[in-house]
Specification:
heterodimer, A: 4-stranded antiparallel sheet, B: 118 residues
């Protein structure tokens, strides 16, 4: 089974900051990596698929990069509505697996 | 507009059974993979099961042999039959659709709460 880790587990940032989250897979997943955003009490929302592709309708301030085992997710300029928890997920092989999440809150 | 609407969540005793449903609209059901993902209270996301466009089924180890995913294409509905429920199955269950081949076009339902307790 593929294990996913994320760092940091949480971070505090200000509106306008650039934020980067790292996701690492225990074995290579090629580009089969997605990123999701979840706000408290709400369903997750898909942001990125294929490691670097924006889902339709998602703001271009979100971006993803990486391949193999190491991936980055970046918000270029943090907006107030971006304070949330972010998860990565591999879909290279079953069982699919999520990272533990990174909580982004207000500094 | 794509919509996914889960239903069927309830309070169930340990060892009991429950079926949750996810009705989809705004897309052609058999062109997409349908997933069930759960989230225990205060915890992260956990993938539970997937049914592929061709009908192949996949499960996380902790539910293998207890849960069954199925679909009714005439009703655009996917189901998760949950048997021999345990306290650790308590969670919000989300259904989600995605393009099976590249992960694009990913949409989530609003979730349904399953509580396993005596």
């Amino acid at each position: 089974d593929i294990q996913m880790t994320q760092s940091p587990s949480s971070l505090s940032a200000s509106v306008g900051d650039r934020v980067t989250i790292t996701c690492r897979a225990s074995q290579a997943v090629s580009n089969h990596l997605a990123w999701f955003q979840q706000k408290p009490g709400k369903a997750p929302k898909s942001l990125i698929y294929g490691a670097s592709n924006l889902q339709s309708g998602v703001s271009s301030r979100f971006s993803g990069s990486g391949s193999g085992t190491d991936f980055n997710f970046t918000i270029t300029s943090l907006h107030p509505e971006d304070f949330a928890t972010y998860y990565c997920q591999q879909s290279k092989s079953y069982p699919l697996s999520f990272g533990p999440g990174t909580k982004v809150d207000i500094k | 507009e794509v919509q996914l609407l889960e239903s069927g969540g309830a309070l169930v005793q340990p060892g009991g059974s429950l079926r949750v449903s996810c009705a989809g609209s705004g897309f052609t059901f058999t062109n997409y993979a349908m997933n069930w993902v759960r989230q225990a209270p205060g915890k992260g996301l956990e993938w539970v099961s997937t049914i592929s466009p061709s009908g192949g089924t996949y499960y996380t180890d902790s539910v293998q042999g207890r849960f069954i995913i199925s679909r009714d294409t005439s009703k655009n509905t996917v189901y998760l039959q949950m048997n021999n429920l345990r306290a650790e199955d308590t969670a919000v269950y989300y259904c989600a659709k995605q393009n099976y081949y590249d992960g694009s076009d990913y949409h989530w339902g609003q979730g349904t709460l399953v509580t396993v307790s005596s």
